[in-house]
């Protein structure tokens, strides 16, 4: 599909300059752009690549001298990276989903499909499941009994949705994602070595062999509207109540959400984040990649954690955290600076000790 520069700018609420009738069919980096591509030269850092490409038009920053860059046309957006959201949506031709059901799909007679829903090859939909209008269920997807999938959902290849899971509208799950697996919940007949070590901060007491008994997951998972789940990300069902995910939450690949976790609205959960059971995450929280959240922890609204942060205690609203154990980011950075100075400090102390020892004794 082709768009003029003017059509794109109008759709994005941006400004079109120059030959606004230039047609583009795609967008790419300046050095790779051909005549029909919109070059993404959104800062001087990227604009240098225009001379290596053949772009006629580019998205540029406010105040850029686009004519000096050899362009015929330009789009100027107040916030270029945000404009990319609308631009990529316009240029994404999606996938060729037919309507209806592929002949190899297995759908229980008691399941219901909304108008315009597509079910791909070898998908399985269980008894009593409800699939919303215009939902796209791709190949090898499995949907458990009595699950409810909202309108315009997209479940990519190999997604697994457990029994009784409830998912809102416009849900997107990337390949291999799992919603509604059992929680990781096991218990020993007597107090376990792990429990003792936690209480004593390391002393396990008398070591004895112990076997673990499963605590079954009787709850399920409730997911709001406009949630996106990355590839191979997992959300476990609750023990006796549902694990809950608010509206607008975005999960990256390989995120792990434990049983009974509650996550508010519009959170960003980056790659390889792990949230242990029964923790509660507020609204608009950002958890950087590889953040680990201990069980039964509360993280307040608008909190942010940097990459690889380990949250072992409650985090107040609006706090920016970093490190292991997590602490305020400015405190962590100051501590790290001091840590780097320790070798010099010990060296200086050693020199002072030698100097003191060399002093003659007073008569």
Poorly predicted runs are none
Give the helix level as a range of percent.
10-25%
Task: Estimate the mean pLDDT confidence.
Answer: 94
Through-space gap between termini: 97 Å
Main sheet: strands, sense, barrel: 10 strands, parallel
Total of DSSP H or I helical runs spanning 4+ residues: 5
Strand content: 25-35%
Task: From the alpha carbons, calculate the radius of gyration and give it in angstroms.
Answer: 28 Å
* Adjacency order of strands in the biggest sheet: 9-12-15-18-21-26-29-32-35-38
Give the CA-based shape: flat
- List how many beta strands DSSP finds: 40
Oligomer: single chain
Structural class: alpha/beta
Detailed description of the structure:
The protein is built from five helices and 40 strands. With 363 residues, the chain is of the alpha/beta class. Helix 2 links the parallel strand 5 and strand 6. The longest helix has 29 residues. The model has no long low-confidence stretch (mean pLDDT 94).
């Amino acid at each position: 599909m082709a768009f003029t520069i003017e059509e794109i700018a109008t759709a994005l609420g941006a400004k079109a300059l120059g030959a606004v009738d230039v047609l583009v069919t795609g967008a790419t980096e300046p050095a790779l752009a051909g005549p029909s591509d919109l070059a993404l030269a959104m800062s001087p850092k990227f604009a240098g690549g225009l001379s290596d490409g053949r772009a006629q038009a580019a998205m540029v920053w406010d105040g850029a001298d686009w004519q000096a860059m050899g362009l015929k046309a330009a789009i100027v957006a107040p916030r270029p990276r945000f404009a990319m959201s609308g631009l990529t949506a316009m240029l994404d031709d999606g996938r060729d989903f037919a309507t209806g059901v592929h002949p190899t799909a297995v759908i229980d007679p008691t399941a219901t499909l909304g108008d315009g829903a597509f079910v791909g090859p070898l998908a399985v939909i269980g008894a009593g499941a409800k699939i919303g209008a215009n939902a796209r269920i791709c190949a090898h997807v499995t949907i458990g009994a009595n699950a409810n999938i909202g309108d315009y959902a997209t479940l990519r290849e190999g997604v697994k949705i457990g029994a009784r899971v409830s998912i809102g509208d416009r849900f997107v799950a990337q390949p291999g994602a799992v919603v509604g697996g059992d929680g990781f919940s096991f218990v020993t007949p007597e107090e376990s070595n792990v429990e003792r070590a936690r209480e004593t901060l390391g002393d396990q007491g008398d070591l004895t062999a112990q076997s673990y008994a499963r605590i079954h997951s009787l709850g399920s998972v409730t997911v709001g509207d406009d949630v996106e789940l990355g590839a191979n990300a997992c959300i476990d069902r609750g023990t006796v109540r549902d694990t809950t995910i608010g509206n607008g939450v975005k999960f990256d690949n390989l995120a792990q959400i434990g049983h009974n976790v509650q996550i508010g609205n519009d959170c960003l959960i980056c790659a390889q984040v792990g949230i242990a059971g029964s923790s509660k995450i507020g609204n608009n929280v950002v958890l950087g990649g590889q953040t680990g959240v201990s069980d039964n922890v509360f993280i307040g609204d608008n909190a942010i954690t940097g990459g690889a942060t380990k949250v072992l205690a409650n985090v107040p609203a609006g706090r920016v955290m970093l490190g292991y154990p997590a602490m305020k980011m400015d405190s962590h950075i100051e501590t790290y600076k001091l840590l780097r100075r320790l070798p010099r400090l010990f060296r200086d102390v050693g020199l002072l000790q030698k100097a003191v020892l060399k002093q003659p004794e007073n008569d």
